[in-house]
Every structure is written in C-alpha cells, then in structure tokens.
Amino acid sequence: MTAGDTAPRQTAAEVQAEIEREQRRLAETLDELGVQARPANIARRQVDKVKERGTRLLDEARALVVGGGAVRVESHLVHPEEGSIVVKGDDKVVTTYQSRGQLPPEALILAAGVGAVIAVGVVAWAVRRKRK
C-alpha cells in the first residue's frame, strides 16, 4: 500500500467470500439459462409466439373484412427489464387498437348474406359428397 492509498486491502477471507458470492450468482444465471434452453420451454415460447401473431393477424383481417371494428393504431416492442436474461426471439410486440364505432346495418346484412351463402354451399357439398 502506498501513502496515497486510503482504502484498506481486502483480507483473504473477504476475497474468498466475494468469490463465493460471484460463484453463486453465476450458478443461478446458468440455471436460468438452462431452464430457458430446454427444448420444451423453447417449443412453448414458439407456440405462444405463433398464437399471438395468429391472433393479431385474425384481428387485423377481421377489421379489414368487416370494414369497421378495430383499427390498429400503433405497434411497438416491449423492452425487457434491466438485468433480465433475454433469449433471441423473446421480444414482445404490443399493438393498440381503436374502435371505429358501430357497423352500418348494410354491412351486417351483407355479412349475414355471405355467411348464409357459405353455409348453404358447405351443406350442399357435404350432401353431394355423401351421395357418391
């Protein structure tokens, strides 16, 4: 220690305690990474991601087809908390929708008509297929 140093040097016991703390912290981090890297957990995250994207696409398609309903206003990534472990592809997208209000009666009548035509077509196809 020089004359300019005011901080005392660590004792061997303090150094050993610090090493053990760091080893425990590193072991916990490795355990967390091991849990995230399990094939079942990776598959679950991918299924959740596909469901989320499918739901988002369905909502947007519904809004386009119906002409009213919800309109996407904004989408943005959610940043993870500081110090958290993020596996590539775990980013989340938050989308905000806004309602356009009630649909006009003409759109509802048109949708009901299209639905009826599709239902009659499916029934006719099933009956025809059954006769063969």
Average pLDDT, all residues: 78
Q: How many beta-strand segments?
A: 2
Rg, please?
A: 29 Å
Helix content: 55-70%
Query: Strand share of the residues?
Result: 5-15%
| Total helical elements | 3
Biggest sheet details: 2 strands, antiparallel
Q: What structural class results from the helix and strand content?
A: alpha+beta
Structural summary, described in words:
The chain has helices at residues 12-36, 39-66, 105-131; strands spanning 70-78, 92-99. It is an alpha+beta fold and 132 residues long. Strands 1-2 form a two-stranded antiparallel ribbon.
Main attributes?
2 strands; elongated
List the helices and strands and how they pair.
Layout: H1 12-36, H2 39-66, E1 70-78, E2 92-99, H3 105-131
Antiparallel strand pairs: 1-2
